[in-house]
Write a structure and sequence with these properties.
83 residues, alpha+beta, YaeB-like fold, 3 helices
């Protein structure tokens, strides 16, 4: 089952601030992960940011699942994303 990708404004802004190569890498991984997100996702301990995360190299993608939608909430470097 494939999930629709929805980016929040904050997530779109986070991605836009990254260099072009990193943007392409993250978007490519999200396209792969949306086919079976629970195989690649880790559940977050606290749900302040969201419910799940993907790891893409040194970057983390924070997201939630609602119905058939994968909602990307935040994207950032692993040192800064949880602050």
């Amino acid at each position: 089952m494939s999930y629709d990708l929805i980016y929040t404004r904050r997530a779109a802004r986070d991605i836009a601030r990254l260099n072009h190569e990193t943007q392409l890498r993250i978007k490519g991984k999200l396209e792969q992960y949306r086919l079976a997100p629970f195989q690649h996702a880790e559940k977050l301990v606290t749900s302040e940011l969201g419910s799940y995360r993907f790891r893409v190299g040194d970057y983390r993608v924070i997201f939630d699942i609602q119905d058939n939608s994968l909602i990307v909430l935040r994207v950032g470097h692993r040192r800064e994303i949880y602050r």
